[in-house]
Amino acid sequence: MRQITGVLIGAGARGRFVYGAYANKYPDKLKIVAVAEPDEERRMLAAAEHGLLDSELFESWEQLLVRPRMADIAIVATQDRMHFHPTVRAMELGYDVLLEKPMSPSEDEVIAMIEASRKYGRLLTVCHVLRYTPFWSSIKQLIESDAIGEVVSVQLSENVGYYHIAHSFVRGNWSRAKETSPMILQKSCHDMDILAWLIDEPCTKVSSYGSLKHFRIEKAPEGSTERCLDGCAVERECPYSAIRIYEEAETTDWTRFITHDLTPHGVREAIRTGPFGRCVYRCNNDVVDHQIVNMEFESGTTASFTMSGFSHDISRTVQIMGTRGEIRGCMEKKDIKLYRFGKEPEVISIADEEGGHGGGDEGLMRSFLKQVRSHGNDARPALTSAEVSMQSHLMAFAAEKSRLAGGKSIALTAQLISNQLLNSIG
């Protein structure tokens, strides 16, 4: 099994703790040979983790990709609005590309990346990691085996978790849609992708409602302050207190995302001065904290999706209703029950997998590296190739258009036909 070499573009949370960590865990399968990262501290940490020389470190993707190809693959894990240019340039140089989701907040850029993949003959795989999990793979197999007959309706819920939404989408990097992506694209394109995969036919209509209901200045409790350490009178009662989430929590591991200095002093300093110590009611955030999406597919199958930041845990639950049975499941509990109508319910066993996203992170990496090794000899498309992922991105784009239009139904087929850029990809 040939070791694959890679360049890492973006050494933030996903870059370091998922893709970089995979290389460290399986050095015979993947070796990181260069890193591009503008943050010096992150860049030097990545250098230490992968044994890189100064000549293998770059402050920007432009500095890295001005050079001839240095490796087999490029892993693009930059912020959402910085995906397009390094991805296209990397493919132009001959890299196969693993691209963090979402592909881009721009419809035109999504299509242009697919065109570039075809033009340069390079793999472009999107990190829709849920398809690679034993949980969702088992559900897909049940549907394909006709265990519940024809799928009629699906209900999917993403419970973001009160501490996750406060960290990532109120205080953190994905708090403003125009700087990153709308919530339905950034967080929930995973869910659009799973629905598209399970139902396995074109989505034709989408409508959506949602808003930023809670994390607003007018919701700030009396006695609250600009920062949690400014003498806030309600800090001890507030579930979103930075002190509780980063210093005192026993079940979450969010502290490593706010500082590289994990000493008590370092954590306290990050809360005192950094963005993650701000009051959640006084941040400059504008993405929704709850949203629902209704979808109709080509055969008449329907699906509903609910995203909410107001849940005690981080989890996904699903109910799939067919003409001869029903499937219910909770991803985080690894719980799938099959109800064949008129028969006793069956508990479906799920294999244990290591890694984040229920084993999806490592499953994605194994699949991508295998395809890179066989590139040119395997005609089968990647499970989450860019062309496959386009469907879920268009669903998310349509959902956001509907939400902004007050829930107006968006005809997705008409949208595709009217977009002349699609002509070039068939």
From TrEMBL:
Residues 7-127 form the Gfo/Idh/MocA-like oxidoreductase N-terminal domain. InterPro entries: Gfo/Idh/MocA-like_OxRdtase_C (IPR004104), Gfo/Idh/MocA-like_OxRdtase_N (IPR000683), Gfo/Idh/MocA_Oxidoreductases (IPR051450), NAD(P)-bd_dom_sf (IPR036291). Residues 140-364 form the Gfo/Idh/MocA-like oxidoreductase C-terminal domain. It comes from the Bacteria. Belongs to the Gfo/Idh/MocA family. This is Gfo/Idh/MocA family protein. It comes from Paenibacillus yanchengensis.
